[in-house]
Amino acid sequence: MPVTFSLKLFTRLAGLAVLIALSCSVVAWGLSSVRHQAWQEQLAAPLMDWLATTPTPRQQYHWLPGLYDFNIRRVGELDLDAVAQERLGYGQTLVVSDQVGARLLVARPAGGVLSLRFRNLYQDLAEATALVLLWHMNEVPPGKGRDSLSGSLAEALGVRLTSLSHVDQLPAPEVLDRAWERNIAWYGDQGQGRVLMRLADGALVRMDMPPGFRTLSWPVLLLLVGLAALVLLIAVRLLMRDLERNLRSVESVAVRIARGDLEARVEPGQGNLVSRLARSFNGMAEQIQRLVEVQREMIHAVSHELRTPVARIRFGVQMIESARDEQALQRQLDGIDNDIQELDELIDEILTYARLEQGGPVFSLRPASVTDLVRQVIEEQQVLHPAVTIDAVITEQSELFAESDVEPRYLHRAIQNLVGNACRYAAGRVRVSCSLDDENCRVDVEDDGPGIPEQEWEKVFSAFARLDDSRTRNSGGYGLGLSIVRRILFWHGGQSFVGRSDELGGARFSLVWPRRQ
After folding, report:
1. 389 domain residue, yes or no
2. Does some domain include residue 264?
3. Spatial separation of the C-alpha atoms in residues 124 and 317, rounded to whole Å
4. Is 357 helix (H, G, I), strand (E, B) or coil?
5. Per-position b or e across 23-43, b if 16+ CB within 10 A of its CB
6. Cα–Cα distance between 483 and 453 in angstroms, integer?
7. Around 398, how many Cα atoms within 13 Å sit in the side-chain half-sphere?
8. Rounded to two decimals, what is the model's pTM?
9. Which of 211, 232, 260 is the last residue of a domain?
10. What's the pLDDT tens digit per position in 401-447?
11. Strand order in 69-73's β-sheet?
């Protein structure tokens, strides 16, 4: 995976994580604010409704104003917006929080707005509710309907009352001490508040408040998980859109190539996921284009190369029909045999070139002596070209590193093609040099012939290329030998090139490849 793409992907994933965290935080904060406000109003509504329906709450619960800011006001005296005033008109309980605490407001059926301020809403509300319960329950003697009264009061005020009749139900001693001093004692926490009440007859009653506010509840958690999944889905879709666009570009180029547009290529881009795929695809497209062009060239060249020997064979067959003596007949038969031999050699060259060009043969590289191959080729070519002197220049160092990982049969063919060409064009001398070391192998074949113009150095390795058509045809060859040499060196991981011989003055062909594969 490209480093640029990895960094870009990491940046996007980090940004996505931050985005999900921010989105969930904002939504959680908004939900928490709304839910907390609703929880406060639901918590305060039972007590405020009870006080609002009491005809004279300040006189009946005369101790409330001394403990809390408890009074009755007109709506105009309160700084409320239109929505809050409308909600009061519907009989809803409002909780207005400020720096001092929370002010509870509810409209009285008799007129005015009942206002009650708590510093700590949950604890103060619990204690105020306990005081109201305690006041009413003390008015009823034990056993004369107190239980039913307790039940109705608890239901109206939204709490749960439990008589403590066993020792194991009692809270800690410090709670009992406070209850003995003030008749009520708050204990518990903001998650679950409790108030211990001591009635006038000494009975102990525990009041359980509704659960405290929980910032994260299961519905909220599920909503946040759903939100995170939605953001992740959108982000993944956006990330995949880029990948899909790149893949579609590769697909469109593949369709164009399938329709015959071999020049179509994919824009690799920088740092995207399919950049390597694009480069490999372009390499494949170039290889296909080259093979198709080679195939076209071969079809054209083969048809041209076959035309001449076939025409000569046809002419020879016609001449056989008109031959009048044994000698003329034999001459035509020998000519036909030579033409057939030429066709056989041409087909062998074409098949070898096609095999090397279209993926290469199954190379079985094994250690072999390069110097022995060079000597073998020189001996064979010396027999075929006795008029040419072929010298071998092999240093002692080259003998030490003579062994190389090669395919002996094909490397023999490459050196043979070069030496054979040099012998055909040499004036009388050819030299084969070996320069071998620990890493590379190099074989140079030089001749004292006319050489090759510099502007033609690359052309000579093209298939069916001839610098001088008549001279090449007379000297033998089909323009495939050097192409075969280059492909053999390619499959050995090396290269071949041509230059000018400084000492002999003719052409110099060089083969270079790594000694160990």
Report:
1. yes
2. no
3. 127
4. helix
5. ebeeebeebbeebeeebbbeb
6. 18
7. 17
8. 0.50
9. 211
10. 889 998 888 888 889 889 988 998 898 899 999 999 889 999 999 99
11. 69-73, 113-118, 102-107, 94-97
**End position of a domain, from candidates 193, 211, 229:** 211
Which residues face 440 on adjacent strands? Answer: 514
Q: Is residue 311 part of a domain?
A: no
In the chain, how many domains are there? 2
Q: What is the pLDDT of residues 227-274, one digit of tens each?
A: 888 888 888 887 777 777 878 888 888 888 888 888 888 877 655 567
Beta strands 429-436; 113-118: pairing state = unpaired
116 CB-side CA count, 13 A: 30
* Residue 139: C-alpha distances to residues 184, 200, 418 (Å): 16, 9, 127
Give the alpha-carbon dihedral of 420, 348, 366, 373, to 10 degrees: -20
CATH code for the domain in which residue 404 is found: 3.30.565.10
Of 453, 460, 458, 459, nearest to 421 by C-alpha is: 460
Domain that holds residue 145: 3-211
Amino acid at 53: T
